[in-house]
C-alpha cells in the first residue's frame, strides 16, 4: 500500500524536545507540517514519514486529517495530497518507529540526526549522501521546538550539520529545513 | 533599515497566475508563506522579499501582520521573526518590484524564473549560481497557484528548471520549493 519502496525514512519528533528555555517538553503537532512534509517526502521518494507524538489527542487529530485526505472528500478534491499522505504514519515514540521499520524490512535502521553541535559521529553532507546509497534501512530524525533532547542525538549513528544561514541567522521553519536537507542528500546531481 | 545589502531579491507573485483549470487568476496570499519565506530569505541573505498582489484587502492584511511582528507585541515575543520581516515588502505588480529595485540600487534587475517548460533562456543550477556571483541586481520570481502566466516567463532573462521529484511527483509547496532553490543557488559549498 505504500507509494514507494525506498529504504530511507524520516521522522518528525514532538517529544522529547526542548522549549525556548531549555525544558524538555512535548511540542504540539502542526497539521501544516504534516501536509508539507508529506509532499516533500513523496518528492524525494522517502519510504515512510513518521509523525511522532505520545499525546493521544494529537495522534487522533493527525489520523483524522489523514483519513480525510486519503479516503474522504479530500481524496477526490486533491489527489496529489492523497498520494503524498499514503506513506505517512503516526507513532508514539521513536522506539516504535524503529520497531516498525525493523518489522517491515527485517533490518534495524541506522539513525541520522541533524544537530547544531559537533559529535564524534558528525559527518558532512557528501559523506551522508554516499552512505545513503548503500543497502539497508535509514531513518533521518528531525526535532521540533528548540531541538531534540541531546541524549537522543548522542545515540544516533550519524549526526549531520544543520542548515547554516549565510549571515548568522539560523531560524528556518522545520519544514523548510527538511526540504533543504532531503534535497542535499537525495536530489539527482546536476 | 534593511537587514542586509544583498543584490539578490525574490518575489512571490499572486497575479497573473494560473488556476487548476488554466484560467488566469489572482491567488490568495497565505500569511504562512509570508512568515516562512521571510525566514528563508533572511537565512540566505536575500536583499528584499516582495509579496506581490494587486488586491488591496490582501495588501492591508499582509501589512498589518508585518506591523504586528515588526513593531507590535510580536516584536518582543519573537525577535527572530521581527528580524526576518525587516526586508519584506508588499507591491501591486511585478513592474512595481522592478521599479523599486531600480530606484533603490540605480540598476535594473535581471529576472530569473523557475518554470517546468524549456525556453531559449533556460539554464541549469550551476550556471545561474555562477551568474549570481556577478555584480548587479537580480530578482528571482516565484508564482503561486498553478504557476506564473507564460508571457511573464517568456520575458525573463533566465529560466531555471523546477525541482524535479525522484519519481514523477512534482507537487512541492511553494515555500519548500523556494527553500530548496535558494539553497542550491546560494548556500556555501561543502
Uncertain segments of chain A are: none
What's the total number of strands of chain A? Answer: 9
| Helix content percent band of chain A | 40-55%
Mind summarizing the main beta sheet of chain A?
A: 7 strands, parallel
Total of DSSP H or I helical runs spanning 4+ residues of chain A: 8
Helices and strands of chain A, in N-to-C order?
Answer: EEEHEHHHEHEEHEHEH
The CATH architecture of chain A would be 3-Layer(aba) Sandwich
Largest protein interface?
A-B, 38 and 38 residues
Structural class of chain A: alpha/beta
Major β-sheet strand ordering of chain A: 5-4-1-8-6-9-7
Name the CATH class of chain A.
Alpha Beta
By CATH, the superfamily of chain A comes out as SPOUT methyltransferase, trefoil knot domain
Quaternary organization: homodimer
Q: What is the gyration radius of chain A calculated from CA atoms?
A: 16 Å
Kindly report the average pLDDT value of chain A: 91
In what range is the share of β-strand residues of chain A? 15-25%
InterPro entries (chains A, B): RNA_MeTrfase_C_dom (IPR019230), tRNA_m1G_MTases_N (IPR029026)
Organism (chains A, B): Nitrospina watsonii
Domain tRNA (guanine-N(1)-)-methyltransferase C-terminal (chains A, B): 7-186
Protein name (chains A, B): Methyltrn_RNA_4 domain-containing protein
